[in-house]
């Protein structure tokens, strides 16, 4: 699972320069202050019995002329069962109305879930803006979380939610793989920003506990050292970060469920800033480099490693005819997000662009959703993840699409109001 933080990425785009190989020693070398800051969170996993609540606490405008609910994030439990979080225009006057929905057929049809627990009794929102909730993650059809910057938990399939933000105040993401959930949040510790990683599973009744070892503390970026987190298996995770005031790129990883951490063996000499990371299994890694965007255009490169970062090959770039460039990606579109489904099937989401796909390991690319030119380039099509090799969900501000054939064809679907 690859995880993305849009506002953070924009902040770091200009400052995260270069691609020198990391030289910091492996591991768990953290200052005493950093380790002291990593206090285990305290959360009781199973909520008290609650009275059933109405399915629609926040009524959306029903007019077909109004914009449909926008899907911010989605989480597949498997190929058929998927949960979505977003927001819509509310009748009550609140600009953003929390929107939760569930599908049991791969996204073809949806049922709206209750949202009352996400608002205070007075009707005021518990956060400055419901849109500040950045993601949703479900481990089973019953157990899931909303995150960013706090944490909301459900253990009944989204019928009720409980605010657990007292234990987690700055959550970056929750990642589910192999039936285990990892929660990544940031804890300030002196001159460092510590990335605290907690784990939970059904075997522990979804009680959060710290990993055996934590990622190395990172200095140089006071609040946001982490750029990307990807967790391709239950025991493997990779994190990109700034190494220091010089902004040099660094990637640390674990292959043993957080028992130890070390630096990736090497990084390619990409042009521009390291922007995105994606991985599959124990050995395959993709890195995307970008330069500063101009209007709706941005230079971009994609590198692939099939040996866990020992060696790298440039497989795609946007060269605009420059010598030495492959020139197989469009120059239009910025802040690219890469999603590999297999070694040969890759998807690329970009701002102010549609969804592109490659079915030949990145040699050729083509748009698979034709929904960009018709709207004058004013929107973006984003991939929200795959539940298995066949089923996926994509979204723009106005439309949702699903695929059941691995992304070759996409069908627009509606959402209940």
Short descriptors:
417 residues, mainly beta, Methylamine Dehydrogenase, Chain H, 5-stranded antiparallel beta sheet, 4-stranded antiparallel beta sheet, globular
Please explain how this structure is put together.
- This protein has one domain: Methylamine Dehydrogenase, Chain H.
- 3% of the residues lie in helices and 35% in strands.
- The chain has 2 helices and 29 strands.
- β24 and β25 form a beta hairpin.
- The longest helix is centred in the N-terminal third of the chain and has 8 residues.
- The relative contact order is 0.15.
Low-confidence stretches: 2-37, 46-56, 120-131, 219-224
Q: Largest beta sheet, briefly?
A: 5 strands, antiparallel
SSE-based structural type: mainly beta
Q: What's the CATH architecture name?
A: 7 Propeller
Number of helices: 2
What level of helicity do the residues show? under 10%
Separation of the first and last Cα atoms: 29 Å
* Tally of strands: 29
Overall domain count: 1
- On the 0-100 scale, what is the average pLDDT? 78
CATH topology: Methylamine Dehydrogenase, Chain H
| CATH class membership | Mainly Beta
Shape: globular
Strand order of the largest sheet: 1-14-15-16-17
Strand content: 35-45%
What is the CA-based Rg, rounded? Answer: 21 Å
Q: What would CATH call the homologous superfamily?
A: Prolyl oligopeptidase, N-terminal domain
């Amino acid at each position: 699972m690859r995880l993305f933080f849009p506002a953070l990425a924009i902040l770091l785009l200009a400052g995260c320069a270069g691609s020198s190989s990391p030289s910091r020693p492996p591991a768990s070398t953290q200052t005493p202050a950093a380790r002291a800051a990593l206090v285990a969170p305290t959360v009781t996993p199973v909520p008290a019995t609650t009275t059933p609540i109405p399915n629609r606490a926040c009524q959306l405008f029903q007019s077909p002329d109004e914009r449909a609910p926008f899907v911010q994030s989605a989480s597949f439990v498997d190929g058929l069962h998927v949960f979505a979080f977003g927001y819509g225009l509310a009748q009550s006057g609140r600009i953003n109305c929390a929107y939760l929905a569930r599908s049991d057929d791969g996204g073809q049809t949806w049922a709206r879930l209750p949202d009352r627990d996400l608002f205070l009794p007075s009707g005021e929102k518990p956060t400055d803006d419901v849109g500040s909730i950045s993601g949703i993650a479900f481990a089973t059809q019953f157990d899931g979380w909303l995150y960013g910057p706090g944490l909301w938990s459900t253990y009944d399939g989204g019928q009720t939610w409980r605010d657990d933000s007292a234990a987690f105040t700055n959550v970056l993401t929750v990642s589910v793989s192999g039936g285990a959930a990892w929660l990544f949040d940031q804890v300030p510790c002196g001159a460092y920003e510590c990335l605290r990683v907690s784990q939970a599973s059904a075997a522990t009744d979804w009680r959060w506990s710290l990993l055996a070892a934590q990622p190395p503390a990172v200095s140089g970026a006071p609040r946001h050292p982490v750029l990307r987190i990807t967790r391709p298996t239950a025991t493997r995770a990779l994190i990109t970060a700034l190494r220091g005031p010089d902004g040099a790129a660094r990637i640390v990883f674990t292959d043993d469920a957080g028992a130890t951490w070390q630096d990736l063996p090497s990084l390619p000499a990409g042009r521009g800033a390291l922007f995105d990371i994606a991985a599959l299994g124990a050995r395959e890694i993709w890195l995307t480099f970008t330069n500063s965007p101009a209007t709706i255009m941005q230079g971009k490169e994609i590198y692939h490693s099939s040996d866990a970062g020992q060696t790298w090959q440039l497989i795609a770039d946007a060269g605009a005819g420059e010598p030495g460039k492959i020139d197989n990606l469009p120059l239009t579109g910025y802040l690219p997000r890469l999603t590999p489904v297999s070694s040969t099937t890759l998807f690329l989401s970009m701002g102010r662009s549609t969804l592109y796909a490659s079915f030949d390991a990145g040699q050729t690319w083509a748009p698979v959703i034709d929904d960009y030119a018709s709207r004058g380039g004013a929107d973006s099509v984003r991939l929200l993840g795959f539940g298995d090799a066949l089923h996926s969900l994509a979204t723009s501000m106005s439309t949702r699409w699903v695929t059941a054939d691995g992304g070759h064809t996409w069908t627009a679907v509606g959402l209940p109001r």
